[in-house]
Amino acid sequence: MIDNSIFDNKTVFSFEVFPPKRSSSIETIYSTLDELSDLSPDFISVTYGAGGSENCSNTLEIAKRIKKSCNVESVVHLPCLHLSKAEAATMLQQFSENGIENILVLRGDRIEGRAPAGDFLHASDLSGFIKVTTGNSFHLSAACYPENHPESESIFSDLNNLKLKVDSGCNHLISQLFFDNHIFYRFIENCRLAGIDAPVEAGIMPVINRAQIERMVSRCGVVLPEKFKVMLDKYGDNDEAIMDAGIAYAVNQIIDLVSHGVDGIHLYTMNKPVVARKIYEAVKNIISIPKTPALAS
Ligand code: FAD
Fold first, then answer.
1. What is the fold of 4-287?
2. What keywords were assigned to this record (predicted)?
3. Which of 85, 115, 213, 224 reaches 20 to 30 Å from 131, CA-CA?
């Protein structure tokens, strides 16, 4: 189980992977997991039906593989909007039986044409349910949004709702991707002012092609800084060049975040271990230095 003391004096470094499409076999991800594990991350998290695509059946299998064969702590994402309480209870039972102890509690994206099950409207409803039904059997994490969740009414309501998630048992947060570190620093300051003191990992997504970033911007509404747009304009049509530039951009973001004492870096790997390795090699001596306290902009 993740022990929050890992955040005390080191920069936590973690990865996120997603299950292969339903048309591909689960084995297609095994070599990716082996290569990512070689980089000794603190944990690897596995998405579950992200984007409403329902490709969720392999999440548990992949999390088991990470833990049992790769000897790395795994975290399962668990979106709840379309789950009933009975289904959630069954899944928690399956997690326990398979040695999975860490859950990223999520509301999840809406699935077009499918009504919510109605038992859980927000992530905090699920974390409350898990705490009431299983006590401290699981370490719970949650998502947070440096640029506000797209549906939130205001920065204040989003922070209040985030505080509810932490108060309901999620004692570790992973942020949505962002490309402007100053936005993240302001968000952390606001969290601390709002009494949210859980460690917050910065979600970093290396941009490796133009289509990927256009999809992300339309889905998450993240701000693209001027220098990022210039980079995309200049190299976006050349696959090799945009990958080099995207990796360099992510490395610069990470160095700046670690210099400012970030709790952790959560790398959205896009199942590309080559990219994760290049980033890891570029920052490994920086992230291994004992952490300096408190982020400041
Ligand atoms: P919530 O915390 O429930 O928040 C959603 C909205 O409701 C926000 O606007 C919030 O302010 C508001 N709100 C929250 N609580 C309350 C309350 N009590 N009362 C009123 N309003 C409230 N999606 C997937 O489907 N699968 C995945 O694997 C996945 N992984 C993700 C991993 C990370 C790190 C991140 C950042 C996102 C991930 N997502 C995933 C996307 C996520 O599910 C969506 O962003 C979804 O729209 C919100 O989920 P949430 O858990 O943040 O929701």
1. TIM Barrel (3.20.20)
2. Amino-acid biosynthesis, FAD, Flavoprotein, Methionine biosynthesis, NAD, Oxidoreductase
3. 115
